[in-house]
Amino acid sequence: MSHAPKDPNQKLNIAVLTVSDTRTEESDTSGKYLVEALQADGHNLADKAIVIDDKYLLRAKVSAWIADPEIQVILTTGGTGFAGRDSTPEALAPLFDKHIDGFGEIFRAVSYEEIGSSTIQSRALAGLANRTLIACLPGSTGACKTGWSKLLQEQLTASHMPCNFVGYLTK
C-alpha cells in the first residue's frame, strides 16, 4: 500500500494541546505560536485546549481527539521535562500504535545547536495512533518554533519528498 498522499496540496486538521498547571489562553504563547504556524501553512485548527499536567486528564483529551476521524494531527506543548508534574510522555506514549523514535532524536539534535547540552532534558516524542500523528513538544515557545520549523512543517506538507506523514493520516 502506498502512503503517498492523493493530493500534493492536502491540508490537515490539527488539534493543539497545551499541558500546563499555570497557563491560560492569554499567557499560552507556545500554543498560540503553534496555532499561528499551522494556519500560516494552510492547515485547519480542529480544536485547542489547555489541560493541567495530569496523565489521566491528558489521556482522556488526547484519546477523544484520536477517536475523532476529523482530527489527523495532535500537537502538544509542555509536560516533557523532568519536573515533578511533567507527565506527557508517561500519559501519551501508551496510546501510540507506533512510536516515531526519530522525532525525539532529531528534535534533540537540532535543539542542541540552539541551546547546547540543555536539550538532554527534553523528552520530546511522537507516535501514530488510529491514523493520527501525535507530536509532543516542550513547553517553551522557542522549542515549539524549533519543532515546527525543523521537523513538523515539512513532514506535514504533502508535497515534501522523499516522504512525509500526510499519506498515513489521510484516507
UniProtKB/TrEMBL annotation:
InterPro entries the record matches: MoaB, MoaB/Mog-like_dom_sf, MoaB/Mog_dom, MoaB_proteobac, MoCF_biosynth_CS
Keywords: Molybdenum cofactor biosynthesis
Gene3D superfamilies the record matches: MoaB/Mog-like domain
Pathway: Cofactor biosynthesis; molybdopterin biosynthesis
Any GO BP: Mo-molybdopterin cofactor biosynthetic process
Function: May be involved in the biosynthesis of molybdopterin.
Name recorded for this polypeptide: Molybdenum cofactor biosynthesis protein B
Gene: moaB
